Amino acid sequence: MRPPARPSAARAVASLREPRMQPMKPSAMSKRKLKESSAESAESISQVQKILRERFCHHCAAGKLFGMEQQYRHLLELLKRTTVHGESNSALIIGPRGSGKTTLLNHVLKDLREMKEVREDLLEVHLNGLLQTNDKVALKEITRQLQLENVVGDKVFGSFAENLAFLLEALRKGNRTSSCPILFVLDEFDLFVHHKNQTLLYNLFDISQSAQTPVTVIGLTCRQDILELLEKRVKSRFSHRQIYLMNSFDFKQYIKIFKKQLSLPAEFPDESFAEKWNNNIQHLSEDKTVQDVLQNLFHHSKDLRSLHLLLMLAVSAVTVHHPLLTAADLQEASRQHSTDSKANIVHGLSVLEICLIIAMKHLNEVYDGEPFNFQMVYNEFQKFIQRKAHSMYNFEKPVVMKAFEHLLQLELVQPLERPSARAQREYVLMKLLLDSSQIMDALQVYPNCPTDVKQWAASSLSWL
The pTM is what? Predict the structure, then answer.
């Protein structure tokens, strides 16, 4: 017989059997809600990145045109006359790089396609002077874009004009008004001027003047003197319509452009996030720090391409954990945007290569920017070594030559003219592609730069 359990022991056993009160855990429903909200925010951030990147990178026609309303109406009316009434025309869009020439054309073409009275059979041929470097390549590209490879087949043509006339004849049907209108867009128009005899331009302008297929030729260029480059026979067939684009907005309008470029559209799926984002952009545009960043960029370059690049860098910082832009993001983007690429290359050079650049800097100062050769740079380096023999290792001449050739490969130094095979390497004339301030700025952040080298760079030329 076991003795009866003591009351305290019995209570202990009972307490063990009783279920203990567990700490409160979040319910499955609240977990699911939390997961859904984070997924929604991730989806919203992804949408923001997609919309803004398309706006900044692809000259997309979804955004708003700034200060180009008059030019837009002019170009739209010109292209409407071609597509609706079968008229042939030619025009040049002239403006500096980044002024919005391509964006303007994309907007006009998008709105043209959406008009009811415009027929759907407008054919577009896009050529670029950087890609189509001669008339033969350009003609192949025209054939490909008009999808006439099967029609041309193995036919042999006597001249460029005959070939182009055959292509356009293949597209004709009935009279002029019922034929397919064709739009030729020539990007980097000034490069087509250098083609032999300007044959492509002559034939395109000739067709746009004659009563054949309705053709419009639009050229995009940054050369103000483009008409002076055209031959007399080409110039006589050009309509002399010129649409000029100049960034004529002031800083207040620049701030408005900044807001418009970053604002989300009304049809954004998550309305509450869009409202929060747009309110934040409004506050940013009024922030003094942000205005200083924009003012620096505005004074440096007014073109919208630079602004897009700055905003692109800032938007890249947006994540699920950092969903809204801040002034610090724009400051960091501005720092990256204004980083000197050549100064960055200097950071990766050896001490010997840095010494050679400093020697070139001093030669530039002594001889007032006159070209120099390797032998002069080597002599300059030797003077420095003799003064600081205790702290600097004296390299052999072939080693110094190798370092000099590396600077040549990095394009920090450039020969004045193409060296001939018989020219001695030591005496080929060179010029330095860095200025004094770039060298000094790079030396300030160069890791473990010897003090003697820094002092040599900053010193006067008293020992020369």
Answer: 0.65
